Amino acid sequence: MINYIYNGENLSCPDGTSYLDLAKLNQDKYEHEILLASANERLCELTKTVEEGANIRFFTGADAVGSSVYDRSALFLFLSAFYDMFGQEAIDKVQVHF
User: Fold this and answer.
1) d(Cα 38, Cα 56) in Å, to the nearest integer?
2) For residue 10, what is the enclosing H or E element?
3) Distance between CA atoms of 48 and 68, rounded to whole angstroms?
4) What does the pLDDT look like over 47-57, one tens digit per residue?
5) Which residues face 18 on adjacent strands?
6) H or E element that contains 81
7) What's the CA gap between 17 and 48, in Å, rounded?
8) Residues 24-37: pLDDT tens digits?
9) Is 7 left (phi over 0), alpha (psi -120 to 50) or beta?
C-alpha cells in the first residue's frame, strides 16, 4: 500500500495506482474535468503512479495551470496535424505566437 495526503487527509491506495485512478475517485468534488495532478508541488501527468508520501492536488481547466496544459495539448495536436499534412521534409521552421 502507498500512503499519500489529499485535502489534508492521510490516505492509502494499492501499489501501482495512477493519479488518473485517484482523479476518477475524486472527480465529483470538482465542477470541471481534472486534467493534471501535482505531488509535493511538482506537476504530474495523470498516467504517472502515486509515490509514497505524496501530497496530492488536482487541477482542472478552470485553474490557470490546467488551462495552460489544455492549451499546450491543443498546440501539440495542431503541430502533429500540420506535419502530417505537409510532411516534415517540407517544413523548415514553425513558430507559434500567443
Assistant:
1) 6
2) strand 9-13
3) 19
4) 999 999 999 99
5) 49
6) helix 64-86
7) 8
8) 999 999 999 999 99
9) left
